[in-house]
UniProtKB/TrEMBL annotation:
Sites marked Lowers pKa of active site Tyr: K82
Annotated active site: Y57 (proton donor)
Protein name: Glyoxal reductase
PANTHER family according to UniProt: 2,5-DIKETO-D-GLUCONIC ACID REDUCTASE (PTHR43827), NADP-DEPENDENT OXIDOREDUCTASE DOMAIN-CONTAINING PROTEIN (PTHR43827:SF3)
């Protein structure tokens, strides 16, 4: 997997033939306006080409402004956004997508995701995404926070397999069964909260950081990469955005990958998709 050592260039080919970067900038809880504009522009200047936002983050307008002002051609960028839970359902999703597209100021979205599997709605929402893709308004369609049974539902309904499932994924929540199922189905797993909301003060991560002359964050992000998982760490600080990209130039041993995996406690920092008040 030599591409895993190529900063920013290349990435996994999704099941629809589209290539997605291994690394993206997440902008969850990044304020609209100057904060998100600065974060996105900084990331692009440092080489990032993937930006992950959502209607529910309330910063799509700032992300769109940064895209227009960053100096990089639109077709070199990979932009993800997501449909909010209150907007789910077939017709309401179509309308919500147009709102997001207008706020971002884009002719098309690279990847549009169902943000959460809202009971009674996500099946129809998925059909709306399929329609939007057929209309040429979205290049790729996927989901976020879907468990195996949610994925089976929409695949059985439509025979359309999501290209991506973006889920909470980190050393304390390794999601082995979900990762195995995704790999079997050709669904690319993508990690949100890969750095455990900054809870990196684990002895093993410190030990490996010293061993490889890297930071604990870089150790975790490299661990994601070696499992074939896309990662989108969030930061608004230039030095941290740069640090988070510094994991392409080394390789963890198989033993160290396994040791990190063994840290799993099935611990979530975010909501449980099966027990979440949508």
């Amino acid at each position: 997997m030599s591409e895993l050592n190529a900063p920013f260039s290349g990435g996994p080919t999704l099941n629809d033939g589209v290539t997605m970067p291994w690394l993206g900038l997440g902008v969850y809880q990044t304020k609209d306006g100057e904060e998100v504009i600065h974060a996105v522009k900084t990331a692009v200047e440092l080489g990032y080409r993937s930006i992950d936002t959502a209607a529910g983050y309330n910063n799509e307008e700032g992300v769109g402004q940064a895209i227009r002002e960053c100096g990089v051609a639109r077709d070199e960028l990979f932009i993800t956004t997501k449909v909010r839970n209150p907007d789910q359902g077939y017709e309401s999703t179509l309308k919500a997508f147009e709102v997001s597209r207008r706020k971002l100021g884009l002719d098309y979205i690279d990847l549009y995701l169902i943000h959460w599997p809202v009971a009674g709605k996500y099946r129809e929402t998925w059909k709306a995404l399929i329609h939007l893709q057929k209309e040429g308004l979205i290049k790729s369609i996927g989901v976020s926070n879907f468990q195996i049974h949610h994925l089976k539902d929409i695949i059985e309904d439509t025979s359309v397999v999501p290209v991506v499932n973006q889920v909470e994924f980190h050393p304390l929540l390794t999601q082995r069964e979900l990762l195995k199922y995704a790999n079997e189905q050709g669904i690319q797993l993508e990690a949100w909260s890969p750095l455990m909301q900054g809870n990196l003060d684990l002895p093993l991560l410190k030990e490996l950081a010293g061993k490889y002359d890297k930071t604990p964050a870089q150790i975790v992000l490299r661990w994601d990469l070696q499992q074939g998982v896309i990662t989108i760490p969030k930061s608004v600080h230039a030095d941290r955005i740069k640090e988070n990209a510094g994991f392409f130039d080394f390789t963890l041993s198989d033993e160290d990958v396994k040791a990190i995996e063994d840290l799993n406690r099935d611990h979530r920092f975010g909501p449980d998709p099966d027990n979440f008040n949508f």
